[in-house]
Specification:
The structure is a single chain. The chain is mainly alpha-helical and about 170 residues long. Helix 1 crosses helix 5 (about 135-145). The termini are far apart. The protein has a two-stranded antiparallel ribbon. The protein is built from six helices and two strands, in the order E-E-H-H-H-H-H-H.
Length: about 170
């Protein structure tokens, strides 16, 4: 059974069909104006950013207080992390049993389970950066519009690290 929740968007007669109890949502409108994959990614990003802001993960001083185990330790972010893990267990368990996403794309979950030097090295670099700056990539994007020079420097360093990684991976694969 098809349900058309949106019709005639901006006069272009776009109709999105959602099939009940199936995993098929029209990926793009008939006129090509509304891409459900991009829209769902945008909404997920907004929810993620809002969650980071509400939880205090975008506040570097709160993050640094959480990481300061020998000083004025603030355990509240541990509760946020435990809550996030608890909420994610259900959807991830469901996703592992699916071959495609709700938008019809192939399900892409990590399959590698062994620890290797690259994973450990990357984790160490991430942790050191998080401990120095009190910011990780998600919150950095969420607070970028504040114009804080520290966040801008962090983002530039993060982008430089991404470019360096890409260059090293390209060199490694050749």
């Amino acid at each position: 059974r098809h349900i058309a929740p949106f019709a005639a968007i901006d006069g272009c007669h776009c109709v999105l069909h959602v099939q009940w109890f199936r995993h098929s949502v029209c990926l793009a409108s008939s006129a090509g104006g509304l891409d459900m994959t991009k829209l769902s990614a945008f909404i997920a990003g907004l929810l993620f950013g809002l969650g980071l802001l509400l939880a205090g993960m975008a506040n570097p001083s709160k993050v640094l207080a959480f990481l300061d185990l020998t000083g004025a330790w603030d355990p509240s972010l541990a509760l946020v992390m435990v809550g996030a893990i608890g909420i994610a267990v259900g959807p991830l368990t469901w996703a592992r049993q699916q071959s495609s996403s709700l938008l019809g794309r192939p399900m892409q979950l990590p399959i590698k389970r062994e620890l290797d030097p690259r994973l450990i090295g990357g984790s160490l670099l991430f942790g050191i950066g998080w401990g120095i700056a009190g910011i990780c990539p998600g919150p950095a994007v969420a607070i970028l519009l504040t114009g804080s020079w520290q966040v801008i420097v962090f983002m530039l360093a993060m982008l430089a690290g991404m470019l360096l990684f890409t260059a090293l991976e390209t060199r490694r694969s050749h």
